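Colleagues,

Please find the record for the three-part complex below.
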Amino acid sequence: MHFSETFSRMLLYTAAIVSLACVMAVFAFLVYFAWPVLAGGEWKDLLSLNWRPFQGHYGILPMILGSMYLTVLAMLVACPLAAGVCLFCSGLGPGPAAGAVKALVRFMSGIPTVVYGFVAAFTLVPFLRSHFSGSTGYCLLAAGLILGFLILPTIVLIGLSALERVDQELSLTCSALGLSRVQSLIHVIFPAAWPGLLAAVLLGFARAVGDTLIALMLAGNAPQLPGSLFDSIRTLTAHIALVVATDSQSQAYRSVFAAGCLLFFIAAAVNITVFRVQQKFGGLSRDG
Amino acid sequence: MTGKDRLIYFLAWSCALVTTTVVCGLLGFIAWQGGAVLGPALFFGDAPAWPAISGQVPVWDGIWPACVGTLVLVLLAASLALPFGLGCGLYLAILAKGRKKAFCSLCINQLAGTPSIVMGLFGFAMILFLRRTFVPGANTCLLLAGVCLAVLILPYIVRATQNAVEAIPLTQRLIGPSLGLTLWQNMVYSILPQASRGILGGVILAVGRAAEDTAVILLTGVVANAGLPRGVLGPFEALPFTIYYLAAEYRSQSELQTGFGACLELLILTALLFVSARWIQRKIENTWY
Amino acid sequence: MFRRIFFVFLCLCTAVFSLQPVWAGSSDLSAFDGLSGRLTIAGGTAHIPVMKQAARQIMEHNPDIAITVAGGGSGVGVQKVGAGLVDIGNTGRALSEKERDKFGLKSYAFAVDGVGLAVHPDNPVNNLSKDQVKGIFAGEIGSWKQVGGADRQINLYTRDEASGTRSVFWKKALDKGPVAVEANVIQSNGAMKVAISRDPDAIGYLSIGHMDDSVSGVAIDGVSPTRENAKEGSYPVVRKLYMNTKGEPGKLARTFIDYLQGPRGAHIVSENGFIPAGQ
């Protein structure tokens, strides 16, 4: 009996250790391959605006900026829409309609990314091309709009679960004070649920930074500094996919691993922030 | 109602309307374009159906090899991830306490938050490393993609197991120990059966995630034409990559229509998985509350 | 009457036996009998239709052989075959001395192809001087009006850095001039064709063998990018399509190379819009 107890404990410990080992392995491999760049002086080269590998320029700054611009645009599209949908589902819409919208948003989170990209490539891109001269259609705007819709379900579902938790505690109090539904939502419930809402926004941000297909299919992939909404841009994620698929020079690998490290660290920063917020200000469910 | 209230109502309604219109438009467009092509020709091209399914006749211009490739990939990833995911989830729910639990949770969340392209890069790095050290003949293949996808979906299974076990009311969880069962007996006969629905729901979601992921397989060996997968150490086709490839390089209208058909098929697949996971989870909510 | 029948029979036999030389020889499908295994091919995207058609014929003849064809561009072809990751690496340009020595590669040319400028079929511009071409790709000429077309912005499309098509066009048509950084980057000949055919203001370059009715070729200094001009030699931007192996090719790879360099292969090459290397 004692043996069986130890055995089952060992089994569980092993499983946990293997899972942890996976995270460590991902981190280790990335750093191992990016190390020559990060430790040597080459990382300064990476911060140049020039990506021309055949001429020896491995600057990934345009891609970093492209990722930033795209993520910010996607957040600008997604956050107001998410706020509106949350309001609608928290009582501003009639019961059956709110339930239907919530189910639809849940379903949206299951739609594959590549399907969004495919449909947008044949509807949104020609639309932008014909209505805005000076644009090929494959631009920051096209990718930003679709990415915004992609991350919308993440923000809405986590936000709604945070709101519902607070709602249970506070809605009676608000009605007792004579507040209308709108007033109680805007002035009491949203502010009270701020840790959960912040976590929702941060997780949406992380998803937007880490997405590859939308940028690869819709943003044009020109390694240039984004000048306007209608310029073709390249993100870090699309850059990794393009360079590894066309691995022309082994020196270009190292820039790609540096890009991978950067993405990993951004995800880690978001993760730790959400964790601290959760620790200090109360729990939330991440499943929605 | 004050003017400001009215404005907020209007904004909430319009956001909901915009979202609904966009999603329904997207689904309707795919159903319309893809529905026109559904049929044996979409899957098998000009090869006869039954010999093609069994692999006796190679399929050209059809998406059947990609479907099989996706299926094999998903099964491989799920079978690799399931034991470790279950074990780690049970560890988090039953054995771990305090700081160890927090640290482990943090690591699992980090895995969940890692972009999928970074996961693919990890797989590519593994091959580079293996080529330099132990296995000079290593190449990107189905096995590598399966391993990387398994690491990608591991956190989903861990979280689902942990949530399912933690959702069991304390009184039910105490049944095992109160009867004097060992840890193993407790897990196998008491906890896992009660948590099975939640775990199943999580596994189905993880499978859906593995089926639709493109970034990982892009870097670990998917190609546009390979036929049915011949062994795990070779190149393979997959449905999401076929869609991506057709979007960029369709050579005729019929190939474009094939792309829409493939979209519709992938959508139906993930929708089915998703709806069944939700249905299972609903049943749990009815069981406990 | 019997003599007539015998005479007809003799004629038939002669006809049948005289056809044999067309089907015999080491460069036809019977060479693949008894072989089995996997052949992996990667690299130049211009080669893909030819490779796929040959693969289909061979695999239908002998189901024990599996041939996988991938793209990636000429640079990828060199890297992968040099690292031993694929059996045959395709390139749309000749190998440099450095590449040949570093990896120990052997090249086998099987077709001649040209790289042509292309625009959307509705675009009236069909002739440009070499200086205009250089100016357009450098980003200095921004509007179609400046070269005789409508008053709309020129949308540039270029290939990725690993592309052999790109390096040939850059050397021979652009004289190694600069390419504007805001050009959209496309990853294969097939995708370039799709991109140009869907954008009325597009200009890009692709393999002549890939051109069809969905794009319209643009003449440079009066010479159109057609197969005939490439064959004659009047169109300057031409290149050979090569298959490369690391050292001596294995049995299956050798048979495949012989097949494509032989008469059946020449037929496939012509069907796909290229010129067989022997001619």
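The two ends of chain A are 41 Å apart (CA to CA).

Comments are welcome before we finalize the supplementary table.
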